[in-house]
Protein backbone atom coordinates (compact mmCIF):
# COMPACT_ATOMS: atom_id res chain seq x y z
CA UNK A 1 0.00 0.00 0.00
CA UNK A 2 1.20 3.48 -0.83
CA UNK A 3 1.26 6.26 1.71
CA UNK A 4 0.36 9.85 0.91
CA UNK A 5 3.15 12.37 1.56
CA UNK A 6 2.23 15.62 3.32
CA UNK A 7 4.59 18.49 4.01
CA UNK A 8 3.99 20.76 6.97
CA UNK A 9 4.30 24.50 6.36
CA UNK A 10 7.68 24.30 8.09
CA UNK A 11 8.94 21.53 5.77
CA UNK A 12 7.72 23.41 2.70
CA UNK A 13 9.50 26.54 3.92
CA UNK A 14 12.64 24.48 4.62
CA UNK A 15 12.74 23.25 1.01
CA UNK A 16 12.37 26.79 -0.30
CA UNK A 17 15.09 28.06 2.04
CA UNK A 18 17.47 25.30 0.96
CA UNK A 19 16.89 26.29 -2.66
CA UNK A 20 17.40 30.00 -1.92
CA UNK A 21 20.57 29.39 0.10
CA UNK A 22 22.21 27.34 -2.65
CA UNK A 23 20.95 29.57 -5.48
CA UNK A 24 21.62 32.98 -3.94
CA UNK A 25 24.24 32.57 -1.22
CA UNK A 26 26.28 29.94 -3.06
CA UNK A 27 25.43 31.34 -6.50
CA UNK A 28 24.26 28.18 -8.22
CA UNK A 29 20.64 27.95 -9.30
CA UNK A 30 21.34 24.76 -11.20
CA UNK A 31 22.77 23.01 -8.13
CA UNK A 32 19.92 24.37 -6.01
CA UNK A 33 17.38 22.85 -8.36
CA UNK A 34 19.22 19.51 -8.44
CA UNK A 35 19.49 19.38 -4.64
CA UNK A 36 15.82 20.16 -4.07
CA UNK A 37 14.88 17.57 -6.71
CA UNK A 38 17.01 14.94 -4.91
CA UNK A 39 15.38 15.83 -1.60
CA UNK A 40 11.89 15.72 -3.12
CA UNK A 41 12.54 12.36 -4.83
CA UNK A 42 13.91 10.85 -1.62
CA UNK A 43 11.00 12.16 0.45
CA UNK A 44 8.52 10.70 -2.01
CA UNK A 45 10.20 7.30 -1.64
CA UNK A 46 8.66 7.24 1.85
CA UNK A 47 5.34 6.38 0.21
CA UNK A 48 6.50 2.77 0.52
CA UNK A 49 7.81 1.32 3.79
CA UNK A 50 7.92 4.65 5.65
CA UNK A 51 8.96 2.96 8.89
CA UNK A 52 12.28 1.77 7.44
CA UNK A 53 14.21 4.66 9.02
CA UNK A 54 14.95 4.84 12.73
CA UNK A 55 13.03 6.84 15.28
CA UNK A 56 14.75 9.91 16.63
CA UNK A 57 16.06 8.60 19.95
CA UNK A 58 15.49 11.61 22.21
CA UNK A 59 12.32 12.30 24.16
CA UNK A 60 9.70 13.58 23.75
CA UNK A 61 10.28 13.05 20.03
CA UNK A 62 10.77 9.28 20.28
CA UNK A 63 7.36 8.84 21.94
CA UNK A 64 5.76 11.05 19.29
CA UNK A 65 7.02 8.72 16.57
CA UNK A 66 9.35 11.13 14.78
CA UNK A 67 11.72 9.37 12.41
CA UNK A 68 14.92 10.63 10.86
CA UNK A 69 15.76 10.12 7.19
CA UNK A 70 19.27 11.15 6.01
CA UNK A 71 19.37 12.59 2.49
CA UNK A 72 22.74 13.85 1.23
CA UNK A 73 23.84 16.52 3.76
CA UNK A 74 20.30 16.93 5.07
CA UNK A 75 17.81 15.06 7.21
CA UNK A 76 14.06 14.87 6.87
CA UNK A 77 12.13 14.44 10.10
CA UNK A 78 8.76 12.82 9.64
CA UNK A 79 5.93 10.91 11.29
CA UNK A 80 4.29 7.94 9.57
CA UNK A 81 0.60 7.47 10.38
CA UNK A 82 0.03 3.85 9.39
CA UNK A 83 -3.74 3.70 9.92
CA UNK A 84 -4.34 6.81 7.81
CA UNK A 85 -1.54 5.86 5.37
CA UNK A 86 -0.01 9.31 5.61
CA UNK A 87 3.60 10.37 6.03
CA UNK A 88 3.84 13.89 7.42
CA UNK A 89 7.18 15.59 6.81
CA UNK A 90 7.81 17.78 9.85
CA UNK A 91 11.02 19.51 8.75
CA UNK A 92 14.04 19.25 6.47
CA UNK A 93 17.35 20.57 7.72
CA UNK A 94 21.10 20.52 7.29
CA UNK A 95 22.38 17.42 9.09
CA UNK A 96 25.02 19.39 11.00
CA UNK A 97 22.42 21.35 12.97
CA UNK A 98 21.15 20.41 16.43
CA UNK A 99 18.03 18.36 15.71
CA UNK A 100 16.54 18.64 19.21
CA UNK A 101 16.97 22.40 19.19
CA UNK A 102 15.23 22.67 15.82
CA UNK A 103 12.39 20.36 16.90
CA UNK A 104 11.81 22.54 19.96
CA UNK A 105 11.09 25.44 17.59
CA UNK A 106 8.30 23.60 15.75
UniProtKB/TrEMBL annotation:
Keywords: Toxin-antitoxin system. It holds the Pfam family ParE_toxin. InterPro entries: RelE/ParE_toxin, RelE/ParE_toxin_dom_sf. This is Type II toxin-antitoxin system RelE/ParE family toxin. It comes from Emergencia timonensis.
Amino acid sequence: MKFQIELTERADRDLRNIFLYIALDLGSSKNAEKQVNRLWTAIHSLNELPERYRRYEKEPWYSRGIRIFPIDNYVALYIPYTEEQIVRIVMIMYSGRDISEQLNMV
